[in-house]
């Protein structure tokens, strides 16, 4: 059985002897600040970006995107992410990784717990939104923004409860997503944000999208090397990619 979403975490559970085992690996999916940050209209995201990396702390976002937060403000739950005060991510691994927001979109609907009952919801691997947004990217690359916009606004309006974007992007005092400078995003920014939010928690799409968009962090690996066990079997030299060496993002 594939990954599933439980009441508090993502789990890798399996079915054995007709029962579901909920004691296997569980991951609390803290939202990357650069995933939810572009939705922030308070300036906290830009302040975080302008802080030296090792000094960055988690921050609250103010956003009209109802997928991220509720109508009550930064500490209320959205439909995809919820506010989580406690933090279990080790500070010595980088406080810049810590976040107040947790993905819980794939939660069960019956309100049950983990043990003694089936209460987890399977994660969807390929969604209609992904297909729409891939098509939208194609339209943008073919210089047909109007066709792209119709697809982008499907999830933006219906799922985010946001005003429709235009062919030039978004505007106004509450515009989002925003660029790292704080300016209102253009159509490419809207597409990239929409795809990342809609596909959060789905396979490794964020990596592959960032590689295609040229937005990977400097030094990130571009390719997956042959596993070391296979290289040893074939008596081939060990190698890797990334770390600003061969096969790294510029």
Describe this structure in words.
The protein has 250 residues and is of the alpha+beta class. The protein folds into three domains: 33-103, no CATH class; 128-213, no CATH class; 216-250, no CATH class. Helices cover 26% and strands 11% of the residues. It has seven helices and ten strands. It has helices spanning 33-36, 44-49, 128-141, 145-158, 187-198, 205-213, 228-233, and strands at residues 4-5, 10-11, 14-16, 19-21, 26-27, 69-70, 73-77, 81-83, 101-103, 121-122. The strands form four sheets. The protein has a four-stranded antiparallel beta sheet with strand order 5-2-1-10, with no helix packed on it. A two-stranded antiparallel sheet has the order 3-4. Strand 1 and strand 2 form a beta hairpin. The chain is globular. The two termini are 38 Å apart. Mean pLDDT is 85; it is low at 12-25 and 110-119.
Distance between the termini: 38 Å
Number of domains: 3
Count the helices. How many? 7
Radius of gyration: 20 Å
Return residue spans where pLDDT drops below 50 for at least 5 consecutive residues.
12-25, 110-119
Strand content: 5-15%
Secondary-structure element string: EEEEEHHEEEEEHHHHH
Helix proportion of residues, in percent?
Answer: 25-40%
